[in-house]
Write a structure and sequence with these properties.
Layout lengths: L5 E6 L2 E8 L4 E5 L13 H4 L4 E5 L20 H14 L5 E5 L2 H12 L4 E6 L21 H5 L5 H5 L3 H14 L11 H8 L4 H11 L1 H8 L15 E6 L13 H4 L3 E6 L6 H4 L1 H14 L1
Parallel strand pairs: 3-4, 3-5, 5-6, 6-7, 7-8
Antiparallel strand pairs: 1-2, 2-4
Helix pairs in contact: 2-3, 6-7
Length: 293
């Protein structure tokens, strides 16, 4: 699909699709929504010069198996984390570095809390975390998070997927609105539509929001889960996007309460998809971090 070779493995009861290239220390690249493994296509060849790079489609996304095709609450961070750990076990990987974004950032934090010994570093392109708190639902931010409630409606996937045109309009909105350059995804837009029009892929992504609803409300109420009150000890690096409209860079202010070893900086000329829009910068920062941890 991208010139990169597809692989499949059965892990944790699902058939997981992943891209793999390179050699050296292993990096797992975990995507967000509305994404799938193709979002890393500009990074994989660059990182593959120095690292063994693995980019899976998370459960319900891309070409990874969909255990259910209807609405499901069994697709939260801990389920995805179990899939990733099973993928690592199946590939014989004792310890890896994780590069993550959006949904993938939640998954990475779940692994870091429960299995820090399996990780030697965490790199985030944004970091949704419990410290954002009530700011998620601040009056001036409600217009940015409406989709998280919409995705929980049992008819949402059918509505968005009712035609290729409606899917293009919906997915294209987020690719434009969340990017620094609204034309950044123009060359890949049809590939994104192809992906989300595959059976189960819209609902597969929407199931994340169904599964995480209660946890999201708890964060807004300031009720962080018990384990979330213990800082993550794995060395971490956050490269935030200066103009990200949905995950605001000023929300990085409490990260040091939730990570005991963390470095944070803000990238100019980038928004939600810095790994796609600025792959040279993204890979340079990833390489620098994982060379020293």
């Amino acid at each position: 699909m991208t010139g990169l070779k597809s692989h499949y493995i059965s892990a944790n009861g699902v058939r997981i699709h992943y891209l793999r290239e390179g050699r050296g220390p292993t990096l797992l690249l975990l995507h967000g929504w509305p994404e799938f493994c193709r979002v890393w296509r500009k990074c994989i060849p660059r990182l593959g010069v120095e690292f063994d790079v693995i980019a899976p489609d998370l459960r319900g996304f891309g070409d990874t198996e969909k255990p259910v095709h209807g609405p499901s609450a069994n697709a939260g961070a801990d389920v995805h984390a179990a899939d990733v750990l099973a993928l690592m076990d199946g590939l014989g990987l004792e310890r890896v570095g994780i590069v993550s974004h959006d949904v993938g950032a939640h998954v990475a934090q779940s692994i870091a809390h429960d299995h820090p010994d399996r990780l030697h570093g965490l790199f985030f392109f944004n970091c949704p975390y419990a410290g954002i708190g009530a700011r998620w639902a601040a009056p001036d931010h409600l217009s940015e998070i409406w989709y998280q409630s919409f995705h929980q409606q049992p008819w949402a996937a059918a509505l968005v997927g009712s035609s290729r045109e409606t899917c293009r309009a919906y997915i294209g909105h987020f690719l434009r609105h969340w990017a620094h350059d609204p034309h950044a995804f123009d060359e890949d837009l049809e590939a994104w539509v192809d992906n989300f029009m595959k059976p189960g892929n819209l609902q597969g992504g929407f199931n994340w929001y169904i599964s995480m609803h209660q946890a999201r409300l708890a964060v807004i109420r300031g009720e962080a889960p018990k384990r979330g009150r213990l800082p993550i000890s794995v060395p971490a690096r956050v490269l935030w996007r200066a103009s990200d409209p949905v995950l605001r860079s000023e929300w990085s202010d409490r990260l040091d309460e939730f990570f005991s070893d963390i470095e944070v900086s803000v990238a100019p000329e980038a928004a939600h998809f810095v790994h796609y829009e600025q792959p040279v910068l993204a890979c340079r920062e990833i390489e620098a971090f994982f060379r020293r941890v």
